[in-house]
C-alpha cells in the first residue's frame, strides 16, 4: 500500500549550539514554525496547543503571557487570532528542566526519575532511538503509573534525555500495544519528528488480529473524540477530530483475520476504535472488543484466544525522515511471541475445521 500526505506546515531552520544537551538544549534551542494560511482565524493558544502538544494549554498560555512564545518576534495575547504566514517561536524557559525533574506526584515525589530498564533498542545514533516496546509498558508517567514507564527508562539510559520534552518520546503506543516507536535524543530532532507527525510524513503500519469476515482492504474515515459516557474511552463522534485508517487483510482464519493497518492520522486508540466501528474489534481488547467480539465457539474456546488478555495489536513498521541526514529510513519488528502463538493457534483451528468439512462432504 502506498499513501501520500500533503505538507501544510513548514519548519524553519533551527540555529544554536549545544554543549550540554541535558540542559542547554532546553534553554537555547527555539521551536519555530511558519504557519500556513489555513490556520487563519484560530486563536494563538489554540494553534500553539496543536503545534506544541507536548505541553498543556495552560502552560502554553503562561508562556505566551511571559513572552516565551512569540509571533513574528512579538509578544501577543492568547486570544489573538492567527492571520496565516506568521512565524511562531517557542523559547523554552531555562527552568523547564528543573520543573520536569521536580514535578511531584500525589506523594510529593518526582515522576521524572531515572529507573534501570531493559530497553529493546533496535537502532541508536546521536539523533534518535528506535525502541521495540513490549506490551505492558506505559510510555510516560500518568496517574496510576508514576514509575516503571518508558520515560523513566530513557532517563536512566541517558541523562541527556532530560533535556528533551518527555525525555524524547514523540508518539505514543497504548500500554498493551507492542512494537516500534521513535525517541528523539535532541531538541532539534524532537522538533523535526513532531513536524513529520503533524505533516503526516511518518509512516506507521500495525499488525492486528480482528474478529469477523474482513474485506480485502478498505479505508475508515470517521472522526474520533471522547466517549459521551466513559471519558476513559474514545468513540466515533461527529464532534471528534478527523481520523483516517487504511487496512488490508493478509490472512484469514475461522471467524477472524490478521490485518495490516496504516495510520494516516494518530488519534488516541484510533485503530481500536475504527476497527470496532466497522464491526471488526481486536481480539483481546478489554475496552472496545468484548461486546462485539462474537467469535465462533470453536475459536472462542481455543486457549490462545481465551487467554489473550490484551488487544492483539503490534506496531510492525516505522518509516520516517532521519532528522540528522534528511534521508528516509524504515524499521520492522516481528510480531511478539504472544501474537505469534495466537496466529499459529488460529491457523491450526481453521485447518482442522476445513479438514472436518471436507471429510463430511466426502462422507
Automatic annotation (TrEMBL):
GO terms for molecular function: 23S rRNA pseudouridine(1911/1915/1917) synthase activity; RNA binding. Its EC number is 5.4.99.-. It catalyses: uridine(1911/1915/1917) in 23S rRNA = pseudouridine(1911/1915/1917) in 23S rRNA; a uridine in RNA = a pseudouridine in RNA. Residues 127-277 form the Pseudouridine synthase RsuA/RluA-like domain. GO terms for biological process: enzyme-directed rRNA pseudouridine synthesis. The active site is at residue 174. It comes from the Bacteria. Keywords: Isomerase, RNA-binding. It is an enzyme of class 5 (isomerase). Belongs to the pseudouridine synthase RluA family. Responsible for synthesis of pseudouridine from uracil. This is Pseudouridine synthase.
